[in-house]
């Protein structure tokens, strides 16, 4: 089974690229972030034409997440995170599909820091960890994946100095991410590429793509039940270089069948 995550950076603007990627790589499950559309504007029928069924949590103009499954409809478990009722951002959706609990997220960026946006990021990470612990306690095969907006270690960016003051690199952000892993989750891409040097994002500015000045912020975290089934993981880097591409590349894992 192949499970992927892709920050599409506007589903309407990137729809041809998204459909192209789905048909070329055919993941069993595809999680999307930054769909940037209200619920009624989500192009579900376009995915159904190629065999995918979807659930989504939209928001006008920014944020928004979705889960697509090949040949079946994901069974929604939750949308949004508990703990902050006034938070109306569409950043989290969770579903059961193909015997796996799939938790798709778009974590707050947090810039500028310090400030209220960074404080919100850290609170959101605490709320996410609470939900992840609940999922872990269910002892189901589970994956938490998406754009975490955290560069976990210096090996995960082309130049640590380049983003030294950015919210993605702050000790508080990294510590919050590390605490999630400490609860028993496995960072799939890091596990299979411990040396680092694997990027999932290249900014549109300053020729970052052409110079390969990227970093890793799109992660797939596996519960112990799934970590034992991990076969491979990778980044569809070539899709970042196509016309009118997202500034993220799709990231994926492959799992062996459940015994």
- Indicate the radius of gyration in whole angstroms: 17 Å
Residue ranges: pLDDT <50 for 5 or more in a row? none
Question: Which oligomerization state do the chains in this entry correspond to?
Answer: single chain
Going by CATH, what is the homologous superfamily?
Answer: Endonuclease/exonuclease/phosphatase
CATH names the topology as Deoxyribonuclease I, Chain A
Question: Widest sheet: strand order?
Answer: 3-4-2-1-14-13
Overall body shape: globular
Continuous helix count: 6
DSSP strand tally: 14
What does this structure look like?
With 259 residues, the chain is an alpha+beta fold. It has one domain (2-255): Deoxyribonuclease I, Chain A (4-Layer Sandwich). The chain is built from six helices and 14 strands. It has helices at residues 15-25, 44-48, 116-137, 171-182, 188-192, 224-227, and strands at 2-7, 29-33, 52-57, 65-70, 75-79, 92-97, 100-106, 142-147, 186-187, 201-202, 214-215, 218-222, 230-235, 251-255. The protein has a six-stranded mixed sheet with strand order 3-4-2-1-14-13. A six-stranded mixed sheet has the order 5-6-7-8-12-9. A two-stranded antiparallel sheet has the order 10-11. Helix 3 (116-137) links the parallel strand 7 (100-106) and strand 8 (142-147). Helix 3 packs parallel to helix 4. The longest helix is centred in the middle third of the chain and has 22 residues, at 116-137. The radius of gyration is 17 Å and the shape is globular. It starts with a strand and ends with a strand. The model has no long low-confidence stretch (mean pLDDT 97). It comes from Novosphingobium aquae. Its cofactor is Mg(2+). This is Exodeoxyribonuclease III. GO terms for molecular function: double-stranded DNA 3'-5' DNA exonuclease activity. Residues 4-248 form the Endonuclease/exonuclease/phosphatase domain.
């Amino acid at each position: 089974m192949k499970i992927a995550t892709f920050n599409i950076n506007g589903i309407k603007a990137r729809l041809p690229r998204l459909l192209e990627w789905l048909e070329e790589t055919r993941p069993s499950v595809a999680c999307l972030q930054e769909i940037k559309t209200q619920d009624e504007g989500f192009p579900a029928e376009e995915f159904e034409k190629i065999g995918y069924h979807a659930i989504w949590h939209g928001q006008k103009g920014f944020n928004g997440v979705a889960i697509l499954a090949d040949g079946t409809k994901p069974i929604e478990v939750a949308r949004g995170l508990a703990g902050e009722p006034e938070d109306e951002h569409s950043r989290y959706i969770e579903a059961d599909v193909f015997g796996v609990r799939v938790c798709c997220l778009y974590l707050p960026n947090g810039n500028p820091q310090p400030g209220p946006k960074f404080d919100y990021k850290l609170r959101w990470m605490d709320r996410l960890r609470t939900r992840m612990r609940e999922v872990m306690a269910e002892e189901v095969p589970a994956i938490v994946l998406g754009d975490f907006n955290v560069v976990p270690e210096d090996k995960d960016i082309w130049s640590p100095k380049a983003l030294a003051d950015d919210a993605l690199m702050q000790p508080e952000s990294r510590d919050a991410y590390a605490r999630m892993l400490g609860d028993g989750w496995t960072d799939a891409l890091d596990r299979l590429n411990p040396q680092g040097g694997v990027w999932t994002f290249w900014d549109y500015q300053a020729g970052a793509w052409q110079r390969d000045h990227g970093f890793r912020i799109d992660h797939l975290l596996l519960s112990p039940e799934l970590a034992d089934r991990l076969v491979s993981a990778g980044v569809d880097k070539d899709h970042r270089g196509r016309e009118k591409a997202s500034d993220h590349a799709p990231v994926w894992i492959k799992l062996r069948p459940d015994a």
